[in-house]
């Protein structure tokens, strides 16, 4: 395997940035601005280390996204207190935006999970990685991936089954 050259890295970012942004978006709990920042930060760090990355950089970038997301939320939780809208208006008739609303609801539910659990679910189900690949990306065992997946799916089911609060 050879080092990643500038042109190879540019091609990688050009062709895979949309998929990587989707992963970052889900890791950031549906915050597009935070996802863009996260992806940019990770790509900058990977670019600086591109000579050390052998072969396909995508698994390395996905692992870096998951880890940077967990670190970002860990540090952010010490400084910023987020508040939610308790009395949001319910939409009248659902049209084509229903799918958008459903995806947003899933992204928001993912955002309530702990960062590591969220990373496991995103890598397993949205990026379609195997248990072994997810474990390798996160630096943990497959048993951890299995348990985090089970607990995470249970929590998502509970969150998504709760009726929306009317105000």
Automatic annotation (TrEMBL):
<dbReference type="Pfam" id="PF04542">
    <property type="entry name" value="Sigma70_r2"/>
</dbReference>
<dbReference type="GO" id="GO:0003677">
    <property type="term" value="F:DNA binding"/>
</dbReference>
<dbReference type="InterPro" id="IPR013325">
    <property type="entry name" value="RNA_pol_sigma_r2"/>
</dbReference>
<feature type="domain" description="RNA polymerase sigma-70 region 2">
    <location>
        <begin position="19"/>
        <end position="79"/>
    </location>
</feature>
<dbReference type="InterPro" id="IPR013324">
    <property type="entry name" value="RNA_pol_sigma_r3/r4-like"/>
</dbReference>
<dbReference type="InterPro" id="IPR014284">
    <property type="entry name" value="RNA_pol_sigma-70_dom"/>
</dbReference>
<protein>
    <submittedName>
        <fullName>RNA polymerase sigma-70 factor, sigma-E family</fullName>
    </submittedName>
</protein>
<dbReference type="InterPro" id="IPR007627">
    <property type="entry name" value="RNA_pol_sigma70_r2"/>
</dbReference>
<dbReference type="GO" id="GO:0006352">
    <property type="term" value="P:DNA-templated transcription initiation"/>
</dbReference>
<keyword id="KW-0731">Sigma factor</keyword>
<comment type="similarity">
    <text>Belongs to the sigma-70 factor family. ECF subfamily.</text>
</comment>
<dbReference type="Pfam" id="PF08281">
    <property type="entry name" value="Sigma70_r4_2"/>
</dbReference>
<dbReference type="GO" id="GO:0016987">
    <property type="term" value="F:sigma factor activity"/>
</dbReference>
<dbReference type="InterPro" id="IPR013249">
    <property type="entry name" value="RNA_pol_sigma70_r4_t2"/>
</dbReference>
<keyword id="KW-0238">DNA-binding</keyword>
<dbReference type="InterPro" id="IPR036388">
    <property type="entry name" value="WH-like_DNA-bd_sf"/>
</dbReference>
<feature type="domain" description="RNA polymerase sigma factor 70 region 4 type 2">
    <location>
        <begin position="104"/>
        <end position="156"/>
    </location>
</feature>
<keyword id="KW-0805">Transcription regulation</keyword>
<keyword id="KW-0804">Transcription</keyword>
<dbReference type="InterPro" id="IPR039425">
    <property type="entry name" value="RNA_pol_sigma-70-like"/>
</dbReference>
<dbReference type="InterPro" id="IPR014325">
    <property type="entry name" value="RNA_pol_sigma-E_actinobac"/>
</dbReference>
């Amino acid at each position: 395997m050879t080092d990643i050259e500038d042109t190879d890295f540019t091609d990688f970012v050009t062709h895979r940035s949309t998929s990587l942004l989707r992963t970052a978006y889900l890791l950031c709990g549906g915050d597009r601005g935070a996802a863009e920042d996260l992806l940019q930060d990770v790509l900058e760090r990977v670019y600086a280390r591109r000579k050390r990355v052998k072969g396909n950089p995508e698994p390395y970038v996905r692992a870096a996204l998951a880890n940077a997301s967990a670190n970002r939320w860990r540090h952010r939780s010490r400084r910023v207190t987020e508040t939610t809208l308790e009395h949001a208006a319910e939409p009248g008739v659902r049209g084509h935006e229903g799918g958008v609303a459903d995806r947003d609801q899933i992204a928001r539910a993912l955002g309530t999970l702990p960062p590591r659990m969220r990373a496991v679910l995103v890598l397993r189900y949205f990026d379609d990685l195997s248990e072994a690949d997810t474990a390798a990306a996160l630096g943990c065992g497959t048993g951890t991936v299995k348990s985090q997946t089970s607990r995470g799916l249970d929590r998502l089911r509970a969150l998504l089954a709760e009726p929306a609060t009317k105000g």
